[in-house]
DNA sequence: CGTTTGATTGACCCCACTCAAACGTGGTGG
DNA sequence: CCACCACGTTTGAGTGGGGTCAATCAAACG
């Protein structure tokens, strides 16, 4: 997830890669669109100069000028509370979209920050709107994407509202693992691009709790942890913990 | 919120009310649309026979045939976890939309249940899609609505992830109060349509905690509680608790 | 190398959950 | 009309999961 970024040393005048050739297109925006429509989409997609670690893609309150597809690297999105602290609402891997917040009134309602060197494609809002009126396929695609966003946030509400710390960590690891697999990367061995602090924030836990649970899971032989490098040794046990795997309906801790 | 429902004793053959005449239209779907577009929307909106308390509007997994606007009454939406328990993800008042989950793959990803006798307008998905291709205004409206959905869920993530029980309850009361005001109902005196159990579930708390905090806030003279009837006596104090009101940036409990 | 930042580990404690019991309130039927 | 039951709500007592505080450790960096 992190060392996948080849250093971007080329000049950015014409590094344009068409969506049709992009190896992420099966995950990304144009997924399922026909070739003619896709070429029209190509025409409006803008390549951006890469973001450095901790750069802001946009801030809460910024005018919503485009939606973005992560090409390489990763991005976190977060919202701020009136009294100052912040909640990370998502981590975004290559092929995933950022910026659908801001559809409401034209300004972003959350902040997007790169976790590492990251490059994105930008689809300008005005051009996207025009294109949607002429391409019903794209319009449908938009709905699909936003529906997915809503559905995923529902899952996250469930996690924050109802899960124990153990379940949260297991859910998080499974989520990353699945998304690694979608990208045809190793599902059981990956490098987290975010610090423990961000994982904790995202899951509604204290850093220390994340650290302790990683240690416990390692102790139990479920995962192997080396700093940010994670190896999943027993996917099944993780699934049992979150309740996905039948065979142990009763709630069980680590010493199962 | 509950006793606003006049008993629906008419027959439902032709109780059709056009969106233009609906007193909720400033809150609902057609908000901001021009009259011609609205009449076209009118043509596809279906009135439904009212739901009784605890009726399902739709269930997780159901084909997504329409999106719904609450006309009177109220609806809760919830998602289920693999291990059985459920998380309420939203309460929906008159003028609010339900059913945008299910845009992803055509089937609903959460369940919608009426909290009381409730009537809804249904906009069939297929007709909505057609209409969107011909009315750019409607299309824009759709985006606005989904953007709002995303933004509101972000706020809820913040609540579940970062707030104390006190803050959650205060946030909940303020949210209801604001929405009452939007509807030109009394913002400081209302009847909750949901049981304590549902409030607790929604906020990620135990019923007992909700009960105790209501009692504490009453004790402190912030609210008046009579079963489900709530009176807000000190809106300002509530805002201070959630950190909205400047003047007391330092965190403070009830005995401020 | 010293410094800084992130991660880990231990000790302690508190907020909110659990368990349990009592209390209306509304509905039902005798 | 009252007795009864069922359900939602309240209240109290006790506990534990996860937070806080603080110290240590490891890697990265200038």
What's the domain count of chain A? 2
Major beta sheet, strand line-up of chain A: 1-8-3-6
Oligomer: homodimer
What coarse outline of chain A follows from CA principal-axis ratios? globular
The largest contact between protein chains, plus residue counts on each side, is:
A-B, 52 and 51 residues
CATH class of the largest domain in chain A: Mainly Beta
What's the pLDDT, averaged over the residues of chain A? Answer: 88
- Overall CATH architecture of the largest domain in chain A: Sandwich
Rg calc of chain A: 19 Å
Separate helix tally of chain A: 7
How far the N terminus sits from the C terminus of chain A, by CA atoms, comes to 31 Å
Report the helical percentage of chain A. Answer: 25-40%
The CATH homologous superfamily of the largest domain in chain A is called Jelly Rolls
**What about the largest sheet of chain A?**
4 strands, antiparallel
Under CATH, the topology of the largest domain in chain A can be stated as Jelly Rolls
Class by alpha and beta content of chain A: alpha+beta
The stretches of 5 or more residues of chain A where confidence is low (pLDDT under 50) are: 1-14, 249-256
Please state roughly what percent of the residues of chain A sit in beta strands, choosing from under 5%, 5-15%, 15-25%, 25-35%, 35-45% or over 45%. 15-25%
Per DSSP E runs of 2 or more residues, the count of β-strands of chain A stands at 11
């Amino acid at each position: 997830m992190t060392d996948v970024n080849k250093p971007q040393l080329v000049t950015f005048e014409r590094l344009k890669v068409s969506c049709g050739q992009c190896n992420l297109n099966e995950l990304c925006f144009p997924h399922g669109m026909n070739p003619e429509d896709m070429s029209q989409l190509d025409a409006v997609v803008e390549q951006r100069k890469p973001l450095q670690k901790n750069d802001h893609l946009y801030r809460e309150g910024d005018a919503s000028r485009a939606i973005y597809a992560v090409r390489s690297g990763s991005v976190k999105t977060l919202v701020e509370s009136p009294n100052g602290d912040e909640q990370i609402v998502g981590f975004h891997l290559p092929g995933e979209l950022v910026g659908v917040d801001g559809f409401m009134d034209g300004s972003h309602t959350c902040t997007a920050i790169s976790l590492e060197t990251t490059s994105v494609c930008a689809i300008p809002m005005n051009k996207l709107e025009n294109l949607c009126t002429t391409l019903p396929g794209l319009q449908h695609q938009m709905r699909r994407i936003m529906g997915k966003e809503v559905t995923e946030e529902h899952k996250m509400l469930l996690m924050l509202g109802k899960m124990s710390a153990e379940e949260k960590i297991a859910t998080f690891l499974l989520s990353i693992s699945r998304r690694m697999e979608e990208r045809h990367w190793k599902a059981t061995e990956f490098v987290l691009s975010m610090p423990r602090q961000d994982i904790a924030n995202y899951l509604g836990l204290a850093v220390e709790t994340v650290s302790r649970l990683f240690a416990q899971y390692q102790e139990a032989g479920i995962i192997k942890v080396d700093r940010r490098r994670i190896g999943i040794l027993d996917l099944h046990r993780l699934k049992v913990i979150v309740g996905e795997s039948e065979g142990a309906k009763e709630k069980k801790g680590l010493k199962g």
